[in-house]
């Protein structure tokens, strides 16, 4: 009991995905003991505690089987994947709510403290369900609420679609939902399949034009069908990233027939600052399905092949902290469409939801775009599941929106490949009401770019941008990447970073990034006077701004830049060289080495086609061919370029 209390009070309320399984397993071991303790102590419980379950059990009735065929849209979905049509069935759930105060009962305080899962299982037991067939799946607490999610199981086989959930507020039940089946009125088939999956899989794969990804293991689960019968089924993951398909099929383990499907590619909507706009000041738009399934084959709302209904997925987990625990916006239909009210404080419910949605959207777009340009699994990117494509997984990016640990800033911590990155987004107090860093895309993209440069320089160790000069390059790349997103036409515009959060036209930096030497006079020789990485970064970012403008001027601009890295357009070539050079340059590069990496990247990818354009632009700001480590300006361009 002591150890259980320790677990309950010392584990984070939200289980981080990377060790959630292990923790839950640990929980289960202890849970068994709790249930036993619970069962043994019921006789000594006060009658008031016992009445909790009795009175609740009378509140609603379990829906009858089979489910009514008249409400098909609530229970069925017809899909066409790769040319094969299939209709899935999802049992109707009972759902009972008890208002804002919840249903009042007396609870044995000591037992309540012990375990949410013990209580949740006992609750459904009191409603007539066989508790030996109920498993605690997951749960967490947020503020005053505790959420538990359960599933049924028989003969050691889990049910795919017989699930339940219950919410407690303090000592009251606030609501519960259930699609549990009644074991005494349904025949549970044997747990032994009679066909071999590999005999039928080739046909199924070709019907759906998709294949089983390496490393995914088929499972056996019970599936409740629309006529109420229960079938033993193989569950197989299938993918075809070229057509954006990511799903699982349920194959009858007796007949080999495809019974149902779960589509992981969620259709989601977000009200956000579009990725090619600087901040909230440019207005919000509602975007639908912005995920790039080539970069994110199971979409943005899937973790370990399980769909999520929050701002949490394989690439990015965005949340605020409430009393130290992760607080997500929940949307079962994936519509994250809160309107941001600029006249209100950032921490209202709507504004918090809008900020989480925007941070989630921007961080995922950065993942998807950088992926297309080469920041992939094997190039040490940030993903929980690497789909067997190399690199280390278990490292999505945690974005802490409204991080209470600071104000007027943001930062990104980049650990080695295989450990999650963390993006800390703060509130800014430069204006009233305060402004939210998570509504400023430039700030978000700047931070996410630190993850790209920190991982790709030096091969995923995150140890290779540690010197002052390379740290300055890091700041420069981050501003540059943010600026690249905003360039939405052939006319290269000047770029500022943080104008919105700082409520200042020039934003956080001393000068806008510009090709105009009056607007931005920074040159290589300015490094002689600079010791702070952001100031150093301004010099690098402005050189790159000039490289960008020259490339676009000579090689044109392409608006399909987010998805077509093979375009010959100057703006696309620029990001290619940006990403390629990271992988080429040495650990802790200098300005000269970083420039040389751009030149080499161009040789590697384009046979040196853009070499002179790039060299001339660097030379125009003092980083010419003869520039040395003393930061003396040099305007030399290679002889064959003049
Ligand atoms: C099957 O997948 C290929 C790519 O793998 C795609 O080109 C083709 O259009 C798909 N066929 C159908 C019917 O979706
Ligand atoms: C399950 O079915 C049995 C027999 O039909 C019935 O007595 C019992 O009340 C049912 N339990 C639930 C939870 O509906
Ligand atoms: C915050 O956590 C503390 C300690 O766990 C708890 O006493 C307090 O009630 C919590 N407050 C809220 C608002 O959840
Ligand atoms: C339910 O439907 C399946 C076919 O989908 C059939 O094989 C089975 O016999 C039916 N069960 C009942 C109880 O009607
Ligand atoms: C919301 O932010 C304001 C300051 O902007 C602060 O005074 C207030 O306490 C915050 N409210 C909550 C619930 O955090
Ligand atoms: C993630 O972590 C688990 C447990 O530590 C490990 O078994 C698994 O191989 C890791 N996945 C990847 C892709 O590295
Ligand atoms: C932004 O700054 C301007 C002055 O530069 C000031 O007039 C305005 O009130 C500020 N806006 C907010 C929301 O604080
Ligand atoms: C550069 O900017 C200054 C003002 O910042 C402006 O007067 C000048 O005309 C600009 N030069 C060019 C070539 O556009
Ligand atoms: Zn930075």
UniProtKB/TrEMBL annotation:
The active-site annotation reads 447
Q: What main location does UniProt list?
A: secreted
Q: Name one GO biological process term.
A: proteolysis
An example of a Pfam family matching this protein is Peptidase_M36
Q: What is written in the cofactor note of this entry?
A: Binds 1 zinc ion per subunit.
Q: Which UniProt keywords apply?
A: Hydrolase, Metal-binding, Metalloprotease, Protease, Secreted, Zinc, Zymogen
Answer yes or no on keyword Protease: yes
Its localization reads: Secreted
The keyword Hydrolase is assigned to this record? yes
Task: Report the top EC class in one word.
Answer: hydrolase
**Which InterPro entries does the entry mention?**
Fungal_virulence_M36, Peptidase_M36, Peptidase_M4/M1_CTD_sf
Top-level division of the source organism's lineage? Eukaryota
> What are this entry's molecular-function GO terms?
metalloendopeptidase activity; zinc ion binding
Summarize where Zn(2+) binds, as residue positions. Answer: 267, 446, 450, 475
Q: Which cofactor does it need?
A: Zn(2+)
Q: What Gene Ontology cellular-component terms does the record carry?
A: extracellular space
Q: Which EC numbers characterise this protein's activity in its record?
A: 3.4.24.-
The family this protein is said to belong to: Belongs to the peptidase M36 family.
Q: Which named protein is this?
A: Extracellular metalloproteinase
- What is the organism of origin for this protein? Cyclocybe aegerita
């Amino acid at each position: 009991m002591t150890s259980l209390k320790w677990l309950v009070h010392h584990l984070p309320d939200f289980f981080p995905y990377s060790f959630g399984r292990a923790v839950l397993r640990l929980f289960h071991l202890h849970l068994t003991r709790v249930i036993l303790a619970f069962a043994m102590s019921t006789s000594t419980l006060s009658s008031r505690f016992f009445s909790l379950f009795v009175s609740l059990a009378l509140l609603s009735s379990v829906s009858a089987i089979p489910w009514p065929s008249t409400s098909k849209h609530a229970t069925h979905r017809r899909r066409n994947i790769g040319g094969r049509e299939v209709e899935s069935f999802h049992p109707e759930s009972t759902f009972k709510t008890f208002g804002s105060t919840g249903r009042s009962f007396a609870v044995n305080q000591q037992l309540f403290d012990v375990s949410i899962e013990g209580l949740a299982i006992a609750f459904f037991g009191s409603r007539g369900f066989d508790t030996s067939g109920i498993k605690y799946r997951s749960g967490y607490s947020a503020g005053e609420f505790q959420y538990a999610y359960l599933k049924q199981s028989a003969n050691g086989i889990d049910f795919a679609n017989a699930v339940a959930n219950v919410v407690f507020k303090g000592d009251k039940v606030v609501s519960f939902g259930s699609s549990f089946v009644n074991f005494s009125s349904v025949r549970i088939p044997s747990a032994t399949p009679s066909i071999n999956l590999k005999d039928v899989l080739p046909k199924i794969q070709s019907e759906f034009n998709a294949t089983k990804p390496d490393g995914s293991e088929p499972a056996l689960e019970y599936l409740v069908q629309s006529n109420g019968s229960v079938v033993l089924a193989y569950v197989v993951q299938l993918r075809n990233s070229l057509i954006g398909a990511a799903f699982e099929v349920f194959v009858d383990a007796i007949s080999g027939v495809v019974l149902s499907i779960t589509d992981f590619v969620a259709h989601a909507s977000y009200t956000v600052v579009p990725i090619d706009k600087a901040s909230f000041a440019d207005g919000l738009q509602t975007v639908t399905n912005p995920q790039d399934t080539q970069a994110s084959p199971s979409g943005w709302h899937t973790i370990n092949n399980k769909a999520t209904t929050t701002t949490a997925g394989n690439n990015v987990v965005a949340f605020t902290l409430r009393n130290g625990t992760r607080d997500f916006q929940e949307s079962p239909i994936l519509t994250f469409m809160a309107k941001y009210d600029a006249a209100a404080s950032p921490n209202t419910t709507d504004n918090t939801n809008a900020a989480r949605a925007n941070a989630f959207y921007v961080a995922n777009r950065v993942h998807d775009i950088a992926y297309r340009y080469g920041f992939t699994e094997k190039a040490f990117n940030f993903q929980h599941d690497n789909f067997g494509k190399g690199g280390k997984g278990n490292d999505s990016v945690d974005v802490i929106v409204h991080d209470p640990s600071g104000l007027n800033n943001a930062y990104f911590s980049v650990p080695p490949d295989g450990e999650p990155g963390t993006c800390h987004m703060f509130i800014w107090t430069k204006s009233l009401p305060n402004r939210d860093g998570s509504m400023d895309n430039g700030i978000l993209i700047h931070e996410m770019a630190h993850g790209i440069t920190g991982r790709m320089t030096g091969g995923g160790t995150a140890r290779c941008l540690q010197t002052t000069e390379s740290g300055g390059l890091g700041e420069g790349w981050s501003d540059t990447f943010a600026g690249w997103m905003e360039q939405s036409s052939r006319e290269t515009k000047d770029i500022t970073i943080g104008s919105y959060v700082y409520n200042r036209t020039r934003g956080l930096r001393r000068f806008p990034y510009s090709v105009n030497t009056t607007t931005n006079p920074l040159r290589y020789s300015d490094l002689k006077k600079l010791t702070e990485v952001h100031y150093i970064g301004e010099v690098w970012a402005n050189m790159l701004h000039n490289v960008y403008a020259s490339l676009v001027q000579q090689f044109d601009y392409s608006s399909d830049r987010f998805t077509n890295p093979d375009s010959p357009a100057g703006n696309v070539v620029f990001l290619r060289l940006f990403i390629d050079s990271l992988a080429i340059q040495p650990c802790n590069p200098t300005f000269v080495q970083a420039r040389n990496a751009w030149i080499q990247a161009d040789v590697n990818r384009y046979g040196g086609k853009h070499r002179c354009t790039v060299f001339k632009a660097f030379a125009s700001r003092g980083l010419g061919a003869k520039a040395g480590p003393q930061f003396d300006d040099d305007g030399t361009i290679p002889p064959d370029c003049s």
